């Protein structure tokens, strides 16, 4: 396995239903991700972006094709993933700290000594993460006492606390206002620069994709396939002002053109 | 309205209902055989207190035993049904069917099987309180946010781990809310059973008192039932606040 094929999808397609009701959600797709890379998937709604995410996280089985992780077929060995969705879905009966700690209770090898270390090592680990995203003063609060942006910060921490091999983000900032969203882009960039996790981000915000990712894969309307694979080579760490640079704007416009003029699938609901 | 005036208003309303009752009986000259005055009821209560006590105890303990088994069965059924879509869809019609049977109607059957006395009262108290618990607990578990379930599944959590860490705590507010309903229903169940077929319990005592036209004693029985019912409701309301206070978004 080469480093460039840390995650590899080979002719992976998804079809729902059988017979006359058969709908193709994802055309057979190839996609490779290098270790430590930050890849964004963009495309019109319903194009199968989230489907790819669910395939990689083993929430969904492909109808055809193979997925490899670190050179082995997915399912052979448990892959440690962290996931965050648009809704923060923190557990309201736990404090923010306990919410972030939840994966350590579930994921091996942490869960073996969860009881012994929850007050010591794991607490420090969670607090360090909360400190990084500026939530340490809210560690003992209940989730409903936080603002939407803070909840998403906690959600990101929960997705990262168990040092996942792969971080999967499904429109994590979709429900936030513009200012909060840009703040969180910077938080996420900092986290990524610190940890060098491998990230797959699904979004329909092209500026978000261009700001955060190293590579942007543009998908067509349903049934989805990858139309274009772009590099975003802006220097890191990227200041938020970069989004007003001509090159950046040009890139966002190019991406937009690609999606608007993408050859529509049978349903043709590209907007 | 601030909480203190609110409390004061509620208390004032309760007291004025009794005062109105007392005055209405006095002014309209209503016979004690129809509607005794609250003071007469209290008097009868103290007069017959030693006789009432064993009956009250009987009703309380049949209710509690029936309620206890009802909670155990209701909670486990709710967990089973709530954690599987298939079980939820399959079992729901049956549960609705069973719950729509008036529970009074099954008392004669219990009497036929177990004879008159304590056992039918316990069983009636139990069966009447199972349904609200099952419905509430299974709803709480079945409505776990899909995103949350995806997060848990992506962490390779087992079905049991998801149930224990997410489903069960999430269903607790529903569970405690249903307990408040269930405990009052249990009382209804055991009193009905005592009235139909028993020689003990407050229900039976009221039946005998009314056949002797001792109407103040009948009403004292009612008062005892009301007091027990309200106290148990209060206990479970308190437990609810302690155990599932997070759902009410108060600092606890």
Short précis:
Chain A has 271 residues and is α/β, with parallel strands linked by helices. Chain A has helices spanning 49-56, 96-106, 114-117, 121-132, 148-160, 178-195, 206-212, 246-260; strands spanning 7-16, 23-33, 38-42, 64-69, 72-73, 81-84, 166-170, 198-202, 215-219, 226-231.
Could you walk me through the main structural features you see in this protein, from its secondary elements to its overall organization?
The complex is a heterodimer of chains A (271) and B (252). By secondary structure, chain A is an alpha/beta fold. Chain A has a single domain, classed as P-loop containing nucleotide triphosphate hydrolases (Rossmann fold), CATH 3.40.50.300. Chain A is built from eight helices and ten strands. Chain A has a six-stranded mixed β-sheet with strand order 6-7-8-3-9-10, sandwiched between helices. Chain A has a four-stranded antiparallel β-sheet with strand order 2-1-4-5, covered by helices on one side. In chain A, a hairpin with a 6-residue loop joins strand 1 and strand 2. In chain A, helix 5 runs parallel beside helix 6. In chain B, helix 2 runs antiparallel to helix 8 and helix 7 packs antiparallel against helix 9. At the A-B interface, strand 6 and helix 2 of A face helix 6 and helix 7 of B.
């Amino acid at each position: 396995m080469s480093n460039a094929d840390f995650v590899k999808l080979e002719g992976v397609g998804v079809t729902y239903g059988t017979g006359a009701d058969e709908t193709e959600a994802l055309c057979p797709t190839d996609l490779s991700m290098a270790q430590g890379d930050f890849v964004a998937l963009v495309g019109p709604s319903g194009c199968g972006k989230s489907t790819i995410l669910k395939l990689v996280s083993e929430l969904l089985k492909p109808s055809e094709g193979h997925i490899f992780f670190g050179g082995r077929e997915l399912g052979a060995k448990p892959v440690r993933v962290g996931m965050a969705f648009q809704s923060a879905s923190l557990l309201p009966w736990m404090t923010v700290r306990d919410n972030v700690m939840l994966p350590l209770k579930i994921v091996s090898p942490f869960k073996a000594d969860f009881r012994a270390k929850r007050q010591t090592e794991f607490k420090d680990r969670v607090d360090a993460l909360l400190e990084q995203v500026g939530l340490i003063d809210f560690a003992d609060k209940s989730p409903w006492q936080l603002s939407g942006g803070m909840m998403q910060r906690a959600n990101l921490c929960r997705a990262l606390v168990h040092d996942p091999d792969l971080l999967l983000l499904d429109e994590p900032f979709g429900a936030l206002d513009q200012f909060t969203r840009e703040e969180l882009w910077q938080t996420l960039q900092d986290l990524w620069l610190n940890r060098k996790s491998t990230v797959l981000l699904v979004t329909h915000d092209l500026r978000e994709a261009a700001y955060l990712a190293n590579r942007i894969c543009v998908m067509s309307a349903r049934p989805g396939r990858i139309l274009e694979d772009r590099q975003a080579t802006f220097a890191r760490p990227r200041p938020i002002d970069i989004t007003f640079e001509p090159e950046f704007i040009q890139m966002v416009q190019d991406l937009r053109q690609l999606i608007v003029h993408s050859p529509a699938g049978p349903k043709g609901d590209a907007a | 309205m601030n909480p203190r005036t609110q409390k004061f208003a509620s208390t004032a309303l309760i007291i004025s209902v009794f005062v109105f009752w007392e005055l209405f009986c006095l002014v309209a000259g209503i016979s004690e055989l129809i509607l005794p005055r609250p003071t007469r009821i209290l008097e009868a209560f103290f007069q017959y207190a030693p006789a009432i006590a064993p009956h009250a105890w009987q009703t309380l303990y049949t209710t509690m035993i029936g309620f206890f088994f009802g909670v155990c069965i209701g909670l486990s059924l709710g967990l089973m049904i709530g954690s599987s879509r298939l079980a939820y869809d399959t079992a729901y019609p049956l549960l609705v069917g069973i719950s729509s049977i008036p529970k009074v109607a099954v008392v004669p059957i219990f009497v036929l099987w177990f004879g008159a006395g304590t056992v039918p009262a316990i069983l009636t108290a139990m069966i009447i309180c199972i349904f609200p618990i099952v419905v509430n607990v299974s709803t709480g578990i079945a409505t776990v946010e899909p995103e949350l379930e995806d997060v848990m599944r992506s962490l390779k959590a087992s079905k049991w781990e998801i149930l224990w860490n997410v489903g069960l705590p999430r269903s607790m507010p529903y569970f405690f809310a249903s307990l408040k309903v269930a405990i009052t229903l249990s009382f209804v169940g055991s009193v009905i059973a005592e009235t139909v077929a028993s020689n003990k319990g407050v229900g039976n005592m009221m039946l005998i008192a009314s056949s002797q036209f001792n109407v103040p004693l009948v009403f004292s029985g009612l008062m005892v039932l009301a007091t027990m019912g309200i106290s148990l409701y209060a206990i479970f309301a308190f437990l609810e606040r302690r155990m599932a206070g997070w759902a009410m978004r108060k600092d606890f």
